[in-house]
Amino acid sequence: MVGVVGKPNTGKSTFFSAATLIPVEIASYPFTTIKPNRGIGYIRSPCVCREFNVKDKPQNSLCLDGIRLIPVELIDCAGLVPGAWQGRGLGNQFLDEIRKADALIHIVDAAGATDSEGKTCKPGTHDPTEDVKFLETEITMWLTQILKKDWPKLARTAESAATDLLTLVENRLSGLAIKRSHIIEALRKTALNVEKPTGWSSEDLTKFLDVLRRVSKPMLIAANKIDLPHAEENVEMLKELGYIVIPCSAEAELALRRAAEKELIDYKPGDLNFTITESEELTDVQKKALKTIRERILQKFESTGVQQAINTAFFQLLNMIVVYPVEDLEHLSDHKGRVLPDAYIVPHGTTARQLAYKIHTELGETFIYAIEAREKKRIGEDHVLKDRDVISIVSAKKRA
User: 335: helix, coil or strand?
Assistant: First the structure.
């Protein structure tokens, strides 16, 4: 799951609505989103149907003109303000939603047209890099608050050899989408003494949790309102913070998707351009708006940035791949004859047997071998799958 986060009035709800087309309240004032919204967005990947020259019939996803759109879960958390970890604004309930996220898309007002509290100000008068730094601090301090209270006891327990530190920290942070591998990497990067945690200072603990935040909640920046004054120059400043920064116009994407939904234009999420299909049904105002989007956003930045941000979050931050399981290798179909029915998004490093388990527990338990469709090559249970692999799994019970 990917969380859409940031301070109020940056365009988070617009981004979320554009990504999901689920109606949410959108308005230009802080705390529009009172309860976190969850919805289904899509990652975009070239479908293998054209490579294999087949007409597919997707079941768990969509295929539009050779583009496979695979559903993923997004969560739109309401705006955070400095001090949220201490209960300011709407406080910890929103940070509590972040705990479920595996990665974060940080919607930043790249134009600097909203102050630190999310109130409207003149473009260029607020430094958007401060918004990134404040969010980093909020999440780190939130994690510190969770662990610090019990730290002396955890440290003593670890040193008594009753339970190792890794397990203790993992148990304490359970439910935060933080894995054991994340903790190991954070300890490695900080080089703190795992054998003597009672010797860690308060600063050491905060440093460890700050690194753990970066490792366990990888983040990219969607530099929103890219068409406003000062936005482009601020993007260069944002890049200096070390994050992936994607120029973005959530408003433009929402307008395009709504027009496409009404079949006024031909546009797929992430396209470089669009085609007007029902010109006579568009008002002059709508035509002018579409012309502006094409000239000021698409031709300049090659996308609105919304789909690019979602794809980057899953494919780069979370290192996911797309695989296509089939039953009938000759026809690339399931047992009902549906061609390339499913596309799964799985972590890089997923094995053939792990894919079998993801499809169905029984399929994983009775796994014998799998066959890769391109080379018709038999592969074993530990074979690591590649992006856009088409796989037929042979089990003692059935094939998929």
Answer: coil
- CA-nearest of 385, 319, 315, 320 to 355 is 385
Task: Report the C-alpha gap between 344 and 56 in whole angstroms.
Answer: 15
The strand ranges marked E within 203-350 are: 219-224, 244-247, 265-266, 275-276, 320-326, 344-347
Whether 119 and 238 share a structural domain: yes
The encoded tokens of residue 99 equal 């705990």
148-184 pLDDT tens trace: 989 999 999 999 877 889 999 999 998 888 999 999 9
CATH, residue 27: 3.40.50.300
Percent of the chain's residues with pLDDT above 90: 76
Q: Tell me which DSSP letter residue 399 carries.
A: B
Instruction: Report how far Cα 74 is from the mean position of its chain's Cα atoms.
Output: 7
Closest CA to 234 of 218, 252, 222, 250: 222
356, two tokens: 């079998």
Note the pLDDT tens digit of each residue in 110-142: 999 999 888 888 989 999 999 999 999 988 988
pTM score, two decimals?
0.90
Sequence letter at residue 194 = V
- Look at residues 178, 212, 246 and tell me which one is the last residue of a structural domain: 212
Cα dihedral: 73, 79, 81, 87 (round 10): -80
Which residue's structure tokens are 């260069």?
236
53 Cβ neighbours under 8 A, 6+ residues apart: none
Distance CA 206, CA 203 (A): 5
- Which two tokens mark 198? 């009672």
Burial class (CB in 10 A: 0-12, 13-18, 19+), 77: buried
Angle at 14 between CA 271 and CA 296, to 5 degrees: 50
The SS3 of residue 72 is strand
Structure tokens of 394? 């042979």
Q: How far apart are CA 97 and CA 136, in angstroms?
A: 15
Query: Domain ends where: 154, 186, 212?
Result: 212
Query: Beta strands 320-326 and 344-347: pairing type?
Result: antiparallel
Residue 345 amino acid letter: I
Coil, helix or strand for 134?
Answer: helix
Residue 26 has pLDDT above 80, yes or no: no
For the stretch 61-80, pLDDT in tens is 999 999 999 999 998 876 77
